[in-house]
């Protein structure tokens, strides 16, 4: 698998990959998860936060097909947590917003998780998110997801702190929380998933795949 870090404006190849990402997000979040508020006639999941501030971490397989993705948005810029889901936040952020980022739109291609609970694409994305956060000098990542994310994050050795009590959303208990970014957190998730090499572009180590949980989504 290969990690692509895509920002807007992007080159032609990255733009094509980003468009595939928008189409696949719509399939996952609207058609499969039923998030009707995201439905668009063009079949693309694009919102106000898919802008020049956003960084998209996209995973492709050996054939170049998109198999998973995530979005990272700076917390000192408009973001999903502090606008759409600000009602979930009752605690204080652990540090200045300039030291944090909001993690959204985590998904794995449905064909890669159908009939099984674990997928190597999920594991790769978890490692990639922590690698990217460290490379940017961040100290924490926020997210909004089902409460099961806390259980999974803890299972991979991450320190996760809720920002408020869970509430029901789309029939599921949903919570806002933050993840501590550290070298230890990266070491822990690599150990649990079995991914021992860096995934950031430029690394020339041989590819490694390992199991990861694909049973939840980050908004």
UniProtKB/TrEMBL annotation:
<comment type="similarity">
    <text>Belongs to the autoinducer synthase family.</text>
</comment>
<dbReference type="GO" id="GO:0007165">
    <property type="term" value="P:signal transduction"/>
</dbReference>
<keyword id="KW-0808">Transferase</keyword>
<dbReference type="InterPro" id="IPR016181">
    <property type="entry name" value="Acyl_CoA_acyltransferase"/>
</dbReference>
<keyword id="KW-0071">Autoinducer synthesis</keyword>
<dbReference type="GO" id="GO:0061579">
    <property type="term" value="F:N-acyl homoserine lactone synthase activity"/>
</dbReference>
<dbReference type="Pfam" id="PF00765">
    <property type="entry name" value="Autoind_synth"/>
</dbReference>
<keyword id="KW-0012">Acyltransferase</keyword>
<dbReference type="GO" id="GO:0009372">
    <property type="term" value="P:quorum sensing"/>
</dbReference>
<keyword id="KW-0673">Quorum sensing</keyword>
<protein>
    <recommendedName>
        <fullName>Acyl-homoserine-lactone synthase</fullName>
        <ecNumber>2.3.1.184</ecNumber>
    </recommendedName>
</protein>
<dbReference type="InterPro" id="IPR001690">
    <property type="entry name" value="Autoind_synthase"/>
</dbReference>
<keyword id="KW-0949">S-adenosyl-L-methionine</keyword>
């Amino acid at each position: 698998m290969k990690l692509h870090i895509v920002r807007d404006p992007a080159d032609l190849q990255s733009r094509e990959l980003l468009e595939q990402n928008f189409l696949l997000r719509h399939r996952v979040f609207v058609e499969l998860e039923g998030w009707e508020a995201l439905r668009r006639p063009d079949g693309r999941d694009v919102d106000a936060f898919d802008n020049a501030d956003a960084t998209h971490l996209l995973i492709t397989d050996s054939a170049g097909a998109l198999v998973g993705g995530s979005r990272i948005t700076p917390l000192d810029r408009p973001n999903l947590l502090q606008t759409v889901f600000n009602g979930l936040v009752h605690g204080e952020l652990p540090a200045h917003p300039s030291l944090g980022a909001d993690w959204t739109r985590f998904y794995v291609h449905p064909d890669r998780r159908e009939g099984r609970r674990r997928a190597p694409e999920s594991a790769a994305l978890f490692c990639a998110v922590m690698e990217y956060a460290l490379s940017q000098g961040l100290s924490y990542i926020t997210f909004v997801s089902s409460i099961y994310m806390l259980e999974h994050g803890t299972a991979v050795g991450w320190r996760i702190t809720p920002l408020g009590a869970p509430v029901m959303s789309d029939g599921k208990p949903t919570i806002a929380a933050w993840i501590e970014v550290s070298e230890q957190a990266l070491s822990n998730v690599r150990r649990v998933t079995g991914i021992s090499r860096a995934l950031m572009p430029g690394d020339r180590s041989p590819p490694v795949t390992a199991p990861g949980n694909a049973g939840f989504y980050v908004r």
